[in-house]
Design brief:
Elements: H1 2-16, E1 45-76, E2 79-115, E3 121-131, E4 134-144, E5 154-156, E6 161-170, H2 172-177, H3 181-189
Parallel strand pairs: 1-5
Antiparallel strand pairs: 1-2, 2-3, 3-4, 4-6
Length: about 190
């Protein structure tokens, strides 16, 4: 009887076919239980604290002077017929000063777009805000080193390489700060 059971067991196994096993482990998304929550792959998010201060000043002083004199006369054996003098003079004195200050403080969360061969992360994203019918948009992209990301998954904007940070506002307040079309034409003409 045991030979009969063994034969039945072998026949059952042969008829059942091959069993396929699927693993619960996915190496693309695996993260150990004790690992930190830093961004390290495409699609992960990282928070960027934008703290940018920019200031510039420029001054110039220009002075130009030019004087040209031309004199001539025509004479005839009986005396002078005509005398002509021409004098040209020009003077320019100009100068200007430009000073600009800007400050941007914001915090936004962006996505990892690419993992570069050296391990750096290319990040990018944007944030839209609407406050009192004023639309504000912050666009950010750049490259970060994984070691510059804190344990809280935050990086400061001064640690971004190839950074591009754009802050745009649109609405009544922004429109009031723009010069009128007629003023831009007058400036273009240099008047």
């Amino acid at each position: 009887m045991s030979a009969k059971r063994t034969l039945l067991l072998v026949a059952a196994i042969a008829c059942a076919g091959h069993a396929a096993a699927a693993s619960l482990y996915d190496e693309r998304s695996y993260r150990p239980l004790i690992a930190d929550s830093k961004a390290f792959r495409v699609g992960d998010v990282v928070t960027v604290q934008v703290v940018e201060n920019a200031s510039a000043s420029s001054a110039s002083d220009t002075t130009t002077r030019r004087t040209n004199d031309i004199a001539g006369s025509i004479t005839h054996p009986s005396g002078k017929i005509a005398t002509a003098d021409l004098a040209l003079a020009g003077q320019f004195d100009g100068g200007g000063t430009t000073e600009r200050n800007g400050k941007l403080v914001a915090q936004l969360t962006v996505s990892v777009k690419e993992v570069l061969p050296n391990g750096d992360l290319r990040i990018g994203g944007e944030q839209h805000l609407t406050i009192d019918n004023e639309s504000q948009r912050i666009y950010l992209e750049g490259r970060i080193r994984p070691q510059d990301v804190s344990d809280a998954n935050v990086v400061v904007s001064t640690r971004l390489a190839d950074a591009r940070i754009v802050y745009l506002g649109d609405g009544d307040l922004s429109e009031r700060q723009r010069r009128g079309w007629w003023r831009r034409i007058v400036d273009w003409l240099g008047l």
